[in-house]
Amino acid sequence: MYKPKREIQNEAEFVFIDDLVPQDHLLRKVDKYIDFSFIGEKVRPFYSENNGRPSDPIQLFKMMFIGYFYGIRSERQLEREIQTNVAYRWFLGLKLNDPVPHHSTISWNRRTRFKDTNIFQEIFDEIVFKAINHKMVGGRVLFSDSTHLKANANKHKFSRVEVEVETREYVVDLNKAIEEDRRDHGKKPLKEKEEVTEKKEIRLSTTDPECGFMSRENKQEMFCYLDHRTTDMKFNIITDAYVTPGNVHDSVPYLSRLDRQVERFGFKVEAVALDS
């Protein structure tokens, strides 16, 4: 029986990943206006040139940015999403057949290499500076609020511990101002009151001791974190993000975070907006 010969393709087909990403894609805009090369310089002190496997810290941080942009909270899921998403690969400089960095690499760097460092804050600040240079941040009117983020901790697994109630920073500053004013006017210092330490009992998660238990009226009881954020009015750019346990009141870190922005970015704040 006659069998036809299989047709041989002489011309190779080429697919360019750049052609597959829409021109109006968010990641194209980010890539156009933000030069991420500064990350390499900032993390250089945390890498050894002679030991360990080579890695691309800029790529790792850009992976975390993708997770933030698109609400992918699991590093394992982030790896899977990048594997199949052409735009993500393009943003990271990966070809269609390049392997995606393992999710454990992100986790190890975040939890080990960069633990107890200020590197994430430094990178955040640098991007805020870039937004300021692009005249996207005015620094005149700031909005602040906070959001509870559920911790990966069972609310029924906890121990009860007694802790001291944290004194509000503004109360300390107010007392200091009163003493300075009395001294400037030739008045005697106020008699020192006997210090009374207020204590309270809290629930401490046995799964994640760093989170805090939230129990409020009309709110779900849970172990969580509190994400405090400040946004500039001009183009709604986030200028500060700070995380505390979920049982820390919004007012506790507020003034110090505001002062930090004024000092760090040179903001000339005229007004702030807060909720109740």
TrEMBL record:
Residue ranges of domain Transposase InsH N-terminal in the record: 17-111
One Pfam family of this chain: DUF772
The organism's place on the tree of life at top rank: Bacteria
Protein name per its UniProtKB record: Transposase
Organism name: Neobacillus niacini
